[in-house]
Design goal:
This protein has 274 residues and is of the alpha/beta class. It folds into two domains: 168 residues, Periplasmic binding protein-like II (D-Maltodextrin-Binding Protein, domain 2, 3-Layer(aba) Sandwich); 92 residues, 3-Layer(aba) Sandwich (D-Maltodextrin-Binding Protein, domain 2). It is 41% helix and 18% strand.
């Protein structure tokens, strides 16, 4: 069957309109909320809708929110520069993108500047320092979580080789105290403040803590101009300065954003082993 010329012309016109549409050149704002948190991806999309709408106006280009739950998928997107903007929970993935793909640190999230891993032990534990963990079992969150990257760096600071230790990794941080309580491990590491407080309330001890590391970073692709990046930074940092901005922040559950020295971030990357 031969297609009518009019039908073909309409098809070509539709294709040309799609190419010319601003949505064909939409900027992608990837959002990752961490590997150990149970947040549905569609819920993540809704949380950032108002901010994405503002960014569309500021950059004069549509901005679409793309939730990314898997770290390896996130890494691939950053490596290929598929994401123009990215909200990244784990510091190690951010640092890898800055070092390897030329991304720029735009801002970090207030309230998450000093993310710290705590090593939990039983109230009657005879352990006095991290060095005492040699030859013992340690519970920790997902192996690729920022918490576990921090845990391994802290163990190295204590002259312990993580590769030669018995570390039991678990998908969720709230399983770590269970390991210690039930003597499945002699210590457990978590960076969840609620878990640490609950542990101490029950009489549990904190054996040691890691260096603090800021998490939940906003990065910008090298495909964006310096002017565009600065506009995004000014917008994000100024969000909590007005009632309207605070309202837009509410769905994200964050209080605001602030600047952070990219060089300091890279120094932390060296400590993490990147």
């Amino acid at each position: 069957m031969t297609l009518a010329p009019t039908f073909i012309a309409r098809g070509l016109l539709a294709a040309l309109m799609l190419i010319a549409s601003p949505w064909a050149n939409a900027l992608v704002f990837a959002v990752n909320e961490g590997v150990t948190y149970r947040v549905p991806l569609e819920e993540v999309r809704g949380r950032y809708a108002a901010i994405a709408a503002d960014l569309s106006k500021i950059l004069k280009q549509p901005v679409t929110v793309e939730p990314v739950g898997d770290y390896n998928l996130l890494r691939r997107g950053l490596a290929s520069k598929s994401y123009d903007l990215a909200m990244i929970h784990p510091a190690h993935v951010s640092i890898q993108a800055i070092k390897g793909s030329g991304y720029k640190l735009v801002a970090i999230t207030k309230g998450y500047q000093k993310y710290t891993a705590s090593f939990l032990v039983q109230p009657d534990s005879k352990l006095n320092s991290l060095a005492d963990l040699k030859g013992l079992k340690l519970g920790a969150p997902d192996e690729d979580s920022i918490t576990s990257w921090m845990v391994r760096a802290t163990l190295r600071d204590a002259k312990l080789d993580p590769a030669q230790m018995s570390i039991t990794y678990t998908r969720y941080q709230d399983a770590v105290p269970f390991f210690v309580e039930n003597n499945l491990t002699q210590a457990g590491a978590t960076a969840a403040n609620a878990l640490v407080k609950a542990w101490q309330t029950k009489g549990g001890k904190i054996l040691a803590q890691s260096k603090p590391v800021p998490i939940k970073h906003i990065l910008a692709s090298p495909n964006l101009s310096a002017d565009q990046i600065e506009k995004v930074r000014e917008y994000l940092i100024g969000l909590d300065a007005s009632d309207e901005g605070k309202k837009k922040l509410e769905p994200t559950k964050y209080t605001g954003f602030e600047k952070y020295d990219e060089a300091k971030m890279l120094e932390l990357g060296a400590w993490l082993g990147l």
